[in-house]
Amino acid sequence: MSADAAEPKPKRNVLAALAVFGERRSLVMLALGFASGLPNLLIFDTLSAWLRDAGLSLEVIAVFSLATLAYSAKFLWAPLVDRTKVPWLTKWLGHRRSWMLVCQALVMLGLWLVAGSDPKAALGVMALFAVFVGFAGATQDIVIDAWRIEAATVEKQGAMAAAYQWGYRFATIAAGAIPLVLAEAYNWHLSYAVMAAMMLIGVAGVLAAPREAAHQVRPIHAEGLPARPALEIPEWILRLGLFGLGAVILGCGLAADASLISAALTSLGQGPAGEALKAAWSAKPWGVFYQLGGFLVGLTIIVVAALPAPGVRTRPGVYLSAALGDPLRDFFTRYGKIAGLILALICLYRLTDFVLNIMNPFYLDLGFSKIQIAEVRKVFGTAATMGGVFLGGFAVARWGLMRALVIGAFLAPVSHIAFAWLAIEGPDIHALLIAIGIENAASGFAGTCLIAYMSSLTRVGFTATQYALFSSLYSLPGKLLASQSGRIVEASAKSADTGGVFSGLKGIFATTPPEAYVHALEKSHVSPQALGVGYVVFFLYSAGIGFLAIVLVLIVAARQPAAASATETTV
Fold first, then answer.
1. Distances in Å between the alpha carbon of 111 and those of 164, 177, 191, 384, 531?
2. pTM here?
3. What's the chain's Rg over C-alpha atoms?
4. d(CA 274, CA 262)
5. Using CA atoms, how far apart are residues 192 and 47, in angstroms rounded to an integer?
6. Neighbour-count burial for 316-345, b at 16+ CB within 10 Å, e otherwise
7. For the chain (length 571 residues), average pLDDT per consecutive 10?
8. Cβ-proximal residues to 188 (8 Å cutoff; 6+ apart), any chain
């Protein structure tokens, strides 16, 4: 894909840019996006309603969220998807579509097994089935992303990403509403059986997808290494055991949940240590650093498991180091000195979205009712997001990827300044509509551009692995900064109340309605005006984070085409 990224594309007119959305590939992506979103919500959110309805405790229900752990660590087995053919099906459908069909069949099977389970009589069995669905669904995501990237040129990736997100959003609506309605009218078993059948929408998408080009499998050079099963089998067992251990720890770090590690320690007779670790990971606000530590420890174990043994060249070492290391080496070889800047851009581009993890408290503190918040965020906000997604895809098709990426970077600070304005306006429903509309549309636009950009960085033969790695990487820094959002608001508010550096900002709330921040004293132990100052400072701070992404995207936009052209080779 990088070759396309390096070549200048002619500017499309409006009708030509819109026509991209009506192409066969884009319509297929709607169905595939739906198939991607359905299993995720069914085993994460909707299943919790079934478990609660069955009388299970909230603690038990929380453990079930680990069924989605595979989505956090899917890049670890993406090389398998890149390199392995599906017997019989690959010859008929091609590499990516055959994998998609197998994954969809496994998701359907898993949901059918969940539908036939009884959480009261066989909770453990249901948990295994949920994990099975999570693994199959995460693998399906790997393949769908790879097919999307390989099926269209760079300038069409915006429309493909937009169609995927639309389909995904439709799936979350369906998976969040239809099972509840069916469970109320009939039972949970029927509702999950119907959800299993709805995966046929994804199957139809696979069968309707254009036949893909011949897939290239990158060779692993193990010439001159004789097969020694007696020595290799124990080495494979050791390496894969370490790999699995690292994957669990890394996945728990990315998922921000140490329940699985805690349960393992308990089974080894270390119950107090397991509970202490679990409590540390969930502590606010510093637990995020334990989560990051878990990610780094898991990653280190995986690297150790994949590295060749010092001074000894063995087949397991060669295969694992090549499968996991070659995609990274390829990326750094192609982009050279700019590779680090590109990875930094991926990590920082959506950082402003991740720090907005205190928005519901903000709306409540401002004086809006829960009904108002739900109506504006879930109905109007969803429409604004979908509109932004469409505009992002249109911008990529009309003006090109890098220009659209630059526009998306500039939109983030603007949307956060709108929230600072809302903090001063008070509980005005029209101001809420404007602020949420701007932020959600900007977020949808930027998200589509980032998906298209990450897609452009991959290379044939490593598509699944490289994209899965990028998509797992971009959320990491956001976890660290998001953990400090509440502290920034409260520290700024206290500064404003005690004559600190922000005290002069209290005057801007002279015309703010009196019903705004009326509970500030009892909740945050500051005056209403000071709490308003705290939120304004926070939104200005989050907008400032967005300027870091602007600087990086301008630098990368100036340097990347030359870097890609200089390093691209025939594939």
1. 22, 16, 10, 32, 47
2. 0.86
3. 25
4. 4
5. 9
6. bbbbbbbbbebbeebbeebbeebbebbbbb
7. 46 71 88 94 86 79 73 86 89 91 97 93 89 94 93 86 92 91 93 96 94 75 75 90 89 80 84 87 80 89 88 84 88 90 91 85 90 88 93 90 93 91 94 94 94 91 88 75 82 90 90 88 86 93 90 89 42 36
8. 50, 53, 115, 179
